[in-house]
Amino acid sequence: MIGGLVGTTIYCEDQAQLAPFYRDVIGLQVRAEEPGETHFGGDEGGLLIVGTHSEVHGSAREPERQIPSLLTDDVRAEYARLRERGVEFVAEPATEGGVTFVTLRDPEGNLVNLLQFD
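RESULT FIELD:
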């Protein structure tokens, strides 16, 4: 029986270049780090893995194909904080069906959602 999603991976050309964005700018907790991979997340949540892949080169070609979602307790505050740090957003935060969300672009063009369940 499959129980659900545990995490997701964003592959890039060089994890050492992309992982600092998620650690230093977004503020995710590093759970483990090894050559070619950085694992983000706490003991009770899902994992976001940023890894080097030999077949990935340059910016994301289809950033809409997979969009990881990160949970926050205040989307609007995170939006303001990250905009001040130069993070690019697709649009301003919005609320639909009890969820407040906003979508950002990482330095390689990958899309990432920030979600707040109201």
